[in-house]
Amino acid sequence: MKRMNNVTEFILLGLTQDPDLKKLLFIVCLVIYLITLAGNTLISVTIFISPALATPMYFFLSYLSIIDGFYSSSIAPKMIYDLISERSSISFNGCMTQLFAEHFFAGAEIILLIAMAYDRYVAICKPLHYMTIMNRSVCVSLVVAAGIVGFVHGMIQTTFIAQLPFCGPNTINHFICDLIPILELACTDTHTLGPLIAANSGSLCLLIFSMLVASYIAILHSLRKHSAEGRHKALSTCASHVSVVFLFFVPCSYLYVRPMTSFPIDKIVSVFYTLVTPLLNPLIYALRNEDVKKVIKKLLGQIRTHCG
């Protein structure tokens, strides 16, 4: 059946309609976005060029930083521009592209977080077999799998939405094209379709979050056999991972593991996972990891010396 669509563009209401608040938010969001790009780029470049960080854990961290940078870039620039634009609109195809990018990078990050948790599990619970299990081909395969899963997840979400009929109105009460606000504009009954679409994200969030929690419980259980120094180092590393997991999955669960209805707080949650989480991830790993901090300080020192 051919999809009926009289809508060629969507109007985004954005974060607020207050002109003064929009100017303030423009500055704040722009600064956060630039720091996010700089932080994630610094970590990924540092890991790629440093032999001291050539381990599976940092290999995954470098790609997490890359994904965070692209994920934020798929949403933040448009949101920031709209804060100073007189008319905030996005074409239908542009909206679908943004929806795909958002779920592509989010799906890829989920699998990468699983890979990082598995890496820590093997390192702590099976240290003698670590380099055999987490060899280069396995690490590359896990990163490729993250990309494939992210692509499939994004295509499923976008295909479902793109096939819906839209005949007006075309105003989205949000600053991004996301599932719930777009579904509310469809000229069809989405009471059945909505939960099916959300389940693709909601069930993925719950399933993966449960798996990650179980893996870290197993890690904590095995730490009883380690020395005090070994426990401290392992707990420090795991604390960074757990922090990132919670930063990612708490907003994800709130948005998708619930009835398909918009709430005023949705915009705040979306800002958090769009801007704040990609900003905090590099800070968490850099500030809590002595190896990363040492290499970054050495790299910045070399840059200063070269420039001076």
Automatic annotation (TrEMBL):
It comes from the Eukaryota. Residues 39-285 form the G-protein coupled receptors family 1 profile domain. Its main location: membrane. The chain crosses the membrane at residues 24-48, 60-80, 100-118, 138-156, 201-223, 235-256, 268-287. It is a multi-pass membrane protein. Pfam families: 7tm_4. SUPFAM superfamilies: Family A G protein-coupled receptor-like (SSF81321). It is found in: Cell membrane; Membrane. Keywords: Cell membrane, G-protein coupled receptor, Membrane, Olfaction, Receptor, Sensory transduction, Transducer, Transmembrane, Transmembrane helix. Belongs to the G-protein coupled receptor 1 family. This is Olfactory receptor. It comes from Microtus ochrogaster (Prairie vole).
